[in-house]
Amino acid sequence: MADEVLDGLELKEQAWWAHDAEVTASGLFTMVRRLPALIRDVLVLSWQTSRVDTVVMMAATLLSEIFTALGLLATTDVLTQLFSAVPTAERLAAALPGIAAVVGAAVLRAAFREAGQWARDRLEPLLTQAAQTRLVTLTTGVELAAFDDPDFHDQVQRTSSTATRGPSMLLWAVMETVSGFIGLLAVSGALGVLHPVLLPLILLAAVPSTWASVRAARVSYQVTAGIAAARRRQSTLQDLMTQRPAAAEIRSYTMRPYLLAEFGRIYRWVIRYELRAVRRQQLAAIWGSAFGGIAKGLVYAALGLLLWSGQVVLAVAATAVLAIQRAGAATEQALHGVNQAYEAGLFYEDYVHFIADAAARAESSGSTAPPAETDRIRVDGISFTYPAADTPALTDVSITVNPGEIVALVGENGSGKTTLAKIIGGLYLPQAGTVTWGGVDQHAIDRTALREKIAVIAQDFTHWPLSAGENITIGRHDSGAPLDEVLTASGADAVVDRLPYGLDTMLDPSYQGGTELSGGQWQRIAVARGLYRDAPLLICDEPTAALDARSEHAIFESIRRHAVQRTVLMITHRLASVRWADRIYVLEHGKVIEQGTHAALMERSGVYAEMFTLQSRAYTEEG
Ligand SMILES: Nc1ncnc2c1ncn2[C@@H]1O[C@H](COP(=O)(O)OP(=O)(O)OP(=O)(O)O)[C@@H](O)[C@H]1O
């Protein structure tokens, strides 16, 4: 199988990978240096999520380890008392308080461990939710242009999957490290008493397995980073193949073999990538275990040597073995914790990086209040190029929209009409030129407040999986225009009347009790949504493309009536509907090539006149 597949497509190197390369190149110690900041961040998140659970988890974990340590010390005491000479009844009696201490410590340790686990189990879903909420709060606040940037999508994909485990993974790893170190501290006292050379030997014995797990963690992170783009493509395809919107097209265009082959191609690529990683991880694990075994053997050999040379007496050999085992377990726990923290840190750093990136992409906004009513909107010499495009969508465009006017944008497909409307609607920022509202630069105006003044009936409006009523009132809820009037003006009343539960009907048949609307019925709902918003500026982008002739006429009449106290920016290919516009701008290849009233443009006999004549001739000749 060739190394074909997605090269040159999603899997080409991306700017975002520069960060991965930096992180994956960072060794354990670099990460250990970065960890304090990450741990602080996760502790703040945990504290904000649930103070009680955070405190209980930390306190209970600490106490449980303290009682483990005390138990071990008491055990060492008891064993020394019992086995330092031949056990007698007196020695047994003298050891009884020590035995009671061992039992008491074990009970308390178990109780605190359970309490810590309970708090941890509560925190896990809370932290996951908090991380996800942070994610969606940020993604809904970034500049719209971010969604035209594939790097942003890859970050979202990776962060969505790691956000769920990053914070809790890191928190648990920190707890495990702390537990391990406390345990180690406790036994090191006992081992120091036995012989000081044993402790460093035990620490050395843990090095091979720690190296193996650090390596495995890095490989696992590299895999996640390396397959992010492929995974996104795979899940997009999976959604298309498993959900309703594309189901009919997949069948009518007999796309199944193609899609399955494409899915399999990506799947094979991902699997090959993952299997290569598994091999690397397994090799590291084999070397780690082999050297770890040898190192452990050396520790016991050292103990044997100490016994043989008489530096450790046989009577305390049991304590020595027990302490070595405890110390080994505690060292492994601590180093495992550090490694887990390293792995979790890699993932969590991704999350933190994304949070910072999303914050940097956050929508900019001025602070000036927008004009009370629409006032004059002037677009002056604007140019705009989409992030993913080579050629500009708009070049040096200037238009004026006066209050109360109906202004139409016409032109062939791809001429830049929607882009211009989106810039006026404050969705994209032009790279050159200005947009002013009543003489105030759009940059200076509070963007959210400005959007409150705008209603958009978009070409690609969203079919929200909500009730019909919510699909109309969304974003305005109870503060819009009178609903009855809106329903009548948009023609949505006829749609709602036929729904089984009226406005309460769910408009998505994939949910219980839900139903689907036709394209034209949906468009009436979209028009109702725009009218309900009751904003001084109404932007209509092809509001009637899916409507029958009678509905289209009715809608345009409604919009004209609506425009009496408001301003309307209208985009349409139905030129008969723009005759009554106060001014028409004709766009071509991102430039305004003609402007004027219908009569003036017809007189000019230019592009508009040609388009209009073509359309009207088509009607008169066929009609
Ligand atoms: N998100 C995007 N990323 C890159 N290029 C885009 C994007 N959206 C639109 N374009 C390009 O910008 C140009 C203008 O598109 P726009 O949607 O503004 O045209 P339009 O006049 O509204 O077309 P239509 O009549 O088909 O709706 C087109 O060449 C289009 O391919």
From TrEMBL:
Q: Which GO terms describe its molecular function?
A: ATP binding
Q: Where in the cell is it found?
A: Cell membrane
Q: Where is the ABC transmembrane type-1 domain?
A: 55-343
| UniProtKB keywords | ATP-binding, Membrane, Nucleotide-binding, Transmembrane, Transmembrane helix
| Residue intervals passing through the bilayer | 55-74, 94-112, 170-191, 197-214, 282-299
Domain named ABC transporter: residues: 377-614
Please give the name of this protein.
ABC transporter ATP-binding protein
According to its UniProt entry, this protein's organism is Nonomuraea typhae
